Amino acid sequence: MVLQDIQTSFEKGKVNFIIGISGSGKSVLTKCVVGLMEVNKGEIEFDGRNFTIMNHRQRKEIRQDIGMLFQGSALFDSLTVEQNVMFPLEMFATMSKAEMRKRADWCLERVNLVGKNNLFPSEISGGMQKRTGIARAIAMNPKYLFCDEPNSGLDPQTAIIIDNLIREITYDLGCTTVVVSHDMNSVMEIGDSINFIHAGQLWWKGDRREILFTENKELNDFVFASEFMKEIREIMQKESKR
Amino acid sequence: MLLMQQVCSKPERLAIYRIRIVQEIDKIGVQSVGIVALLSAFMGAVITLQTAANIDSAWVPRWTIGYTTRQSLILEFSSTIMSLILSGKVGSNIASEIGTMRITEQIDALDIMGVNSASYLILPKIIAAMLIFPFLVVISMFLGIAAGALIGPGSGVISLTDYISGIQIYFEPFQVTYTLIKSVVFAYIITSVSGYHGYYTKGGALQVGESNTRAVVYSIILIMISNYIITQLLLL
Q: Is A75 in Cβ contact with B114 (below 8 Å)?
């Protein structure tokens, strides 16, 4: 069993983080929440709607409210940037081709990818691929946005751009965002609510201020893994006592 | 069976599926015309020459060469052997394309959007192959026989008149129907087996390679078994 006894909720309209060491079960938890994996026991609810007992058609309806950014972006290789963003609209939206194109342009403008419409995923950088992934995820105006390791493989500057983009989109669109990450920079930058998964269980929950002063050993080992971070923690604790 | 149930469920947007079928007809069929034409022409020529080389007796009429070429091409080469070759080209292409989509989470992305990924990816390929394979078989038969007509008289092993007599004699139109039926069944086998192995790929590049191999091997085995069953049912 990968996960057990996890009971948590994600704050509406906020950036919620799931953090933990590699292999702790955070990606499995996300896959269970979005229905890519089935849970053996328990319930997953979206605004009071029990996802676990829904039939295929009902799940399909919920999924149109979900946008997801994958770790490797998961863009369709054979489609251009614009076609990738338009894909969910073409499959589900009842709008004209011109309206779809307008919506795709808006999404690409939102992620600062103006003029990249006709490029293929192989022709753009990793950061641009992530931004295209975000544009595709928000194309259907989702209520729930899931981001699996959005910063993996990116340089620190690009990572901050992606973080800020996720925060802006969350607040502007009013969606509930869940970010799976082990990047503490991202957590401290944009995390409103943090869930720490350890050994398949929800080990700790709190916000980014609380995480600095927690006495939870496993969480401290994770957050303050390096000597440098430990020193910073000591300085911060001394400052807060003054 | 479960995958096929998923594949055959109602499509989200028929218009998109129609476009995908046309794209797949191009990819599976039109882009295979070259290899089909080349192999069929050479095979027709070689069958003609080999038959001529093996018929020494004066008791056997020369038109037998044309007759043998026609029968070999119509009954086996153009449908069965060509499908075995296409299982390597088309089957491995399908398995690697879908397998790569699986390991790069593109299939998960489709599922998250609420798209029936199995149907979206596999159904257009099955329909496209079932529509285009009979045309490839017809091209193969025509070019094979035509190559025999060119090489046989050209190399002096048979006159054009004898060859034409041979390809016309004892002709049973049902044999063409039989070979077209076989091609439709083989098209289904190649695309569905390859789609299955690609769709259930787990792991990385190594596993995509293994899926390709399995797709081709199982397609070949199933083609041979179904070839026997169809022949037993339709010709005897």
A: no
